[in-house]
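agent> call fold_tool(seq_1)
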Amino acid sequence: MTEFELVPEEWGGTTIFVPVSALKKTGLTELLEQISLVAEVEELKANPERSATGVVIESRMDKGRGPVATLLMQDGTLKVGQSIVVGTVPGRVRSLINDRGERVQEAGPSCPVEILGLDSVPNAGDRFDVVPTDEDAARVADMRKQKLVDASKGDNKMSLDAIFSKLKVGAVKELAIVLKSDVAGSAEAIKGMFEKVATEEVKVKIVHSAVGGINESDVLLASSAKGIVVGFNVRPDGGAQSEAKRLGVEIKTYTIVYELMDDMKKALGGLLTPETRETQLGRAEVRNVFTVPKIGLIAGCSVVDGKILRSAQVRLVRDGKVIYTGKLGSLKRFKDDAKEVAQGYECGIGIENYNDVKVGDVIEAFSQESVAREL
C-alpha cells in the first residue's frame, strides 16, 4: 500500500485504516463513521439538483433483460425516462433498481443502482452523463467513439524510439486472445491476471474483450490474429462453433478462474524457449595417443569417473581449461566398437573432427536435453 502513497496514520501518514470483517460483522460502524468524518472535514459534497453523472461499477448481458449496468451516482439525480450516455453507449433509462432489489423512480448522489435501457454493454469504469434527448445521446456516443479511433491511430505513429523498442522486443512471443465474459468485472480481473503471468519473453495480447456470448465475429477476429477465443461463464453459439471448426480456431470456455489461469500458464510455458539441461556422464584421462590410418588420432584413455557413452558429447580439458567441445567420433574396447565404457576400464576415444589431443588431457562426456520451461 505504501507504494501508492497510502500510509496509515499510525505510521505518520494521512490515510485512515479501519479493520473490518463482513463475515464477523465487525468494524462496519467504525468504517461508516470514518467515511462521514472524512467527508465532513474535506467538505465532500454533491449537488442533487444538477444532471446526473457517475461511474460504472459492473455490467453484464442478461438473457431476459438485455444490457444491464450497475452505476454509482457521484453527482446529481438520475431519473427513469432520462437519456443517458455511458462511455460510448447511448440509451434511455427504462428502469432503476436499488441495492435492495427495489424499483425506484430516481437515484441521488452516492446511491448504487442497476439501470436497464442501454443499447449495448458498457465497460466497467466508464463514466456516464445524462443528456437532454436521445439524439444528443447518440451524437455524444459517436463523438466519444471517434476520439477512441483517433487515439488508436495516433498510437500507430512511429518515432525512432518506438522503432528501437519494437526491434528490441522482436523476440517477444505473444499469445493473442479474444476474451468474452458474462460480466465486465470478470473480464477486467482476468486481464489483470494475464498481466501478472506474462514475462519479458512471452506476453498475453488481448485482441478484443467484451461482455456476452461467443459469436462468429469473435472467431473471425481470433483467426486473423492467429489466437484463441477464451470464454468465462459464456458459451459459443452454433455459428461460432461451426466457424471455429472450419477455421481451426480453438475455443476454450471456463467457469472457474483458477482453471483458466492454469491453462494459460501452460500455454505461455509452451511458447517459452526450451531450457537446455546438461548431465555429466563421466571423465576419462588420456594415457597415450595413437594415429590409426584412415581413422585419425585415437586417445588411449582410462575412465576415472562415471561412464563414457558412444552417443555422448565430449569436452576436452587441458590444465583446467576447455580446449574443445564436440561429438564423440569413436569409442572402442581393444579393437571392438563399444556403446559404453564404465569406470575402471580402458578404452580408445576418437573426437569427431579434432586431433589435437595430448597425454594428460581429460575428456569429459556429457549429454544435453531440452526441457520445457514453466512460468
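agent> call fold_tool(seq_2)
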Amino acid sequence: MKILLFGRDGQLGTHLNESLADAAGVEQLSGYGIDDLDLSHLDHLRQVINDEKPNLIINAAAYTAVDKAESEVELATKVNAEAPSVMAKAATALNAGMIHYSTDYVFDGTATEPYSEDDQPNPESVYGSSKLDGENAVLANCKNSLILRTSWVYSMHGQNFLRTMLRLAAERDELKVVGDQIGAPTTTRALTDATLKLVQYFMLNNGFSTAVCGIYHMTCGGETSWCGFARAIIAASEFSDTRVLDIPTADYPTPAKRPPYTVLSNKKLFDTFGIRLPDWEAALSECMREE
C-alpha cells in the first residue's frame, strides 16, 4: 500500500503525515508540501503522480485564503479545481483511489437545519466556487474516490481562528467576534482519526466500492457561532479574563461573503462507515491540551 499525500505541511496534512507514517498496512508514504510542489504547476503535478505510482492519493492541499481569492481567481481555481482534476485523472489511469477534502463554503448558508450531501450547493465566494469545481472534477474523473466536506478547521499549529484568538487575547482586554455565522469547529486531529478509518477501509476492501464512493460530510458534532467558539477558546486559556463581545457580520465587512449557517449533517458518514467525530467542545479541549 503506497499513499501519496499532498498538503503535507498544512494544518491537516501535518497530522495526516504523522499518523499515516505509523498506520498499519501503509508500506510507503510520500508527502509533498508547498515547498516541494506548486499545485498550480499542473504538468509537474502530473509527472509527480506518474513517478510515484500510488495506490491512494490524499489531497489535503488547498488555496484557503478566502478573502484573497476574490482577487486571485485564477490561482484559486488552479489549486482548488484544476489540480484535483489532474490528480483524479492520474489516479484513474493508475487504478488508484483518491480522498479529497472540501468545505462547507460550497453552500450559501440559507438553510435552517444541517445540510446533507443531497442538498444543492450554491457557493457565494470564489473560494467556495473553486472548491465546488474541485469536487465535481474529482467525482467526474475518479470513480474510486471520496469527497470529505468539513468546516472551520483548526489546530495548535499554523494559521487559524484558534491561534488568532489566543494571539489577540494576549494583546487586548476585549475581543469583538462575529456572532451570526453558525457552523461546527473541527480539529485536524478529529479529521485525521476519521480519515485513518477510511484508509483502513480502502486497504481491507481493495478500494472504495461503487456503493460507498461519493461525497461525505465530516465535521465535529454540535454547532456554535464564531463568537461562541472564541468564548470557549478564551475560557480554556490563560486569558480567561478577556471579554469577548458579540458583533453582527455587518460590523465586520470582508471581501468574500460568508454563509450565515453551514452546519453539516454527518449522518451519511456514520451510516456508511460507522464513523462519528467528537463534539466540537470535547475536540477543542483535547486540542488545547496538545499545546
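agent> summarizing second result for user.
The radius of gyration is 19 Å. The chain has one domain: 2-158+185-221+262-277.
agent> awaiting next instruction.
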